[in-house]
Specification:
The chain has 172 residues and is α+β, with helices and mostly antiparallel strands. The protein is 40% helix and 11% strand. It has two domains: 101 residues, GMP Synthetase, Chain A, domain 3 (2-Layer Sandwich), CATH 3.30.300; 42 residues, no CATH class. The chain contains seven helices and three strands; from the N terminus they run ααααββααβα. This is DUF721 domain-containing protein.
Length: 172
């Protein structure tokens, strides 16, 4: 008879990338409206109905769906009763910034220790185009022992660093 494998549970919680390097995340973010959505999170107490402001928190969004969470099932059920009002309030708030009907639906779930969007800090405006440091041996001729794929990767890497160097010089 085979023994069942028990699932190994993670003891530490995941850490958001935004906590480590927000300026790098800003470069590669796919949502162009992130600054406007930041306004929504900063004004959550104004947008959310007073009856449920302590019960529900936004913790994620993807496309036109906003994910809201509560700490326990009773709070979650109560916030579901405010679905239409909450969706309307958020869309009216975002319409003032030019985003009409940005969210099409809300999804509710238990937070279970996830970090709320209200807890993330905004990325400072003065940080932009932050580049990694150049390697010490950058530009030297390196023997890749005839491996053409590695040579192409290194060449692309060098071209990328040259491009970032040009961007850095034009910003100053």
């Amino acid at each position: 008879m085979r023994k069942k494998r028990q699932k190994v549970r993670r003891t530490s919680s995941p850490v958001a990338l935004q906590d480590f390097c927000p300026e790098l995340l800003k470069q590669y973010v796919k949502n162009p409206h992130q600054d406007i959505l930041r306004q929504l999170w900063d004004n959550w107490d104004m947008v959310c109905p007073q009856e449920i402001i302590d019960l529900v928190k936004p913790y994620s969004y993807k496309g036109k769906v906003l994910y809201l969470g509560a700490d326990n099932p009773l709070d979650l059920q109560e916030t579901r009763m405010y679905y239409a009002e909450l969706l309307e309030r958020m869309n009216v708030f975002l319409e003032a910034y030019g985003l009409a009907n940005y969210f099409e639906r809300l999804e509710f779930s238990l937070i279970r220790g996830k970090k709320s969007l209200l807890e993330y800090k905004g990325i400072p405006k003065h940080l932009k185009n932050v580049f990694p440091p150049r390697p010490k041996r950058y530009g030297e001729k390196i023997d890749f022992h005839g491996m053409k794929s590695i040579e192409r990767c290194y060449e692309a890497f060098c071209n990328r660093l040259d491009y970032e160097e040009k961007l850095k010089n034009t910003d100053n």
